[in-house]
Task: inverse folding
């Protein structure tokens, strides 16, 4: 894939960029390694001041970067503005909380004495240079939710962004430099995927984080494992959205529409499989389908647009193939299921609801990265759990119920990194985020996230001889 801005609304290539050559990559690695030595010695107040300046810059420039994101990957402009605002919030949150999150830990006095020590401390120290391999779907947020904690922990970042959002990638590298971070503290590498392995194998790189597809995660984890380097992976998701008889069905259906089509349906944590108890299935299916049908598909720059284009032509093709396979094998199309008429130039696809989905269909197990929902009818709590766990993914989950017994059963049995009750999955800087199974490992955000790229050091001091 060339490094280029291709407007998915029109299919036109607006700008292309040259990839860094070997000499350019070496210069970036050398500068990152030099900076890591000195930056790790800075204090939390200094780091916080720098991050707050970056947050102020981003807040002032939110409209400009929102337009760039919409042009590059097609999310509605209102959603792009919200993404920029969320990044500002995360920067300020980590500036305020990082020092406390990484404070030295002191074991209980009894344990210290039992260890034969006069004092013991556990320290969180920066790991060094971290390579971040990031996706296009939330081109600002995915990066900032790594960068904010990593920089506050005293680490240095190298960003390999997706090749279809180069302007957003370059903006991020420049943002931290303009905020006053030392040269080399956070750099954007305009490189193709084929250059990632050499960068990750470089001994000056200590760790890597990746958000993306399962194949990309396997590739990075394989190289990092060979080099014995720490990784955090946030991969795909096919999140269940379970609606039980005690739920507020009307509210569940309204929220389901947003949960499925957020970011034009291109979100790992979007609800994708709607598992509904038979007692409320017909009502939910009707309301949900009505809500999906009412959405406006069109130019993401226009204020009335709910769903813009998919980010790439190949992404739309993938969605079409999954839907076509399901229909051939007996799925019922309740709405959508085609390219919208009148929008032939861009990569648009109608909001779609499929019923009568069976295990014989690819869409039953594969992640659908577009505005397509699958509906399942279940007859019991146990069947709902079984259907929810019937996937190789385990990123998050949504449960709608007002029955405490049902809720506790779901919390205990669902195989997912999160359970969101009577609402849709969302990320927040104070809450740990990540998945299980083929959705990856490790956590981002909160204290759990900032500690992922820290070396944990035990300091033991001998007791005075008697």
Result:
């Amino acid at each position: 894939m060339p490094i280029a801005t291709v407007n998915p609304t029109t299919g036109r290539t607006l700008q292309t960029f040259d990839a860094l050559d070997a000499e350019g990559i070496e210069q970036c690695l050398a500068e990152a390694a030099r900076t890591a030595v000195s930056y790790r010695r800075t204090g939390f107040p200094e780091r916080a001041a720098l991050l707050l300046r970056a947050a102020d810059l981003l807040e002032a420039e939110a409209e400009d970067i929102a337009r760039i994101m919409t042009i590059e990957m097609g999310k509605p402009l209102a959603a792009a503005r919200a993404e920029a605002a969320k990044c500002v919030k995360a920067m300020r949150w980590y500036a305020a909380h990082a020092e406390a999150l990484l404070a030295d830990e002191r074991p209980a006095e009894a344990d210290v004495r039992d260890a034969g020590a006069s004092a013991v401390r556990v320290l969180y120290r920066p790991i060094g240079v971290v390579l971040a391999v990031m996706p296009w779907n939330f081109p600002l947020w995915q990066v900032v939710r790594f960068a904010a904690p990593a920089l506050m922990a005293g680490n240095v970042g190298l960003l390999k962004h997706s090749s279809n959002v180069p302007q957003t990638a370059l903006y991020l590298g420049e943002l931290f430099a303009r905020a006053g971070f030392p040269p080399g503290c956070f750099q954007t590498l305009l490189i193709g995927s084929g250059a990632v392995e050499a960068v990750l194998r470089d001994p000056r790189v200590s760790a890597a984080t990746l958000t993306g597809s399962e194949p990309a995660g396997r590739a990075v984890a394989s190289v990092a494992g060979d080099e014995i380097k720490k990784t955090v992976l946030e991969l795909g998701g096919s999140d269940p959205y379970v609606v039980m008889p005690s739920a507020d069905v009307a509210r569940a259906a309204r929220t389901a529409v947003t949960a499925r089509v957020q970011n034009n349906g291109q979100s790992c944590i979007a609800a994708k499989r709607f598992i509904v108890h038979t007692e409320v299935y017909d009502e939910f299916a009707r309301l949900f389908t009505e809500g999906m049908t009412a959405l406006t598909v069109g130019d993401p720059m226009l204020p009335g647009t709910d769903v813009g284009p998919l980010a790439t032509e190949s992404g739309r093709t993938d969605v079409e193939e999954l839907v076509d396979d399901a229909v051939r094998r007996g799925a019922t199309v309740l709405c959508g299921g085609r390219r919208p008429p009148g929008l032939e130039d861009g990569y648009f696809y109608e909001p779609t609801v499929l019923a009568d989905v069976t295990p014989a269909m690819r869409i039953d197990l594969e992640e659908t990265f577009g505005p397509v929902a699958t509906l399942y009818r279940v007859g019991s709590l146990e069947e709902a759990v079984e259907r929810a766990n019937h996937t190789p993914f385990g990123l998050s989950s949504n449960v709608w119920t007002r029955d405490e017994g049902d809720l506790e059963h779901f919390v205990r049995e669902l195989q997912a990194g999160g359970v969101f009750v009577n609402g849709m999955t969302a990320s927040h800087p104070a809450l740990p985020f990540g998945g299980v199974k083929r959705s990856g490992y490790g956590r981002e955000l909160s204290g759990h996230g900032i500690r992922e790229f820290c070396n944990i050091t035990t300091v033991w001091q001998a007791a005075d001889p008697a």
In short: The mean pLDDT is 97. The chain is about 40% helix and 20% strand.
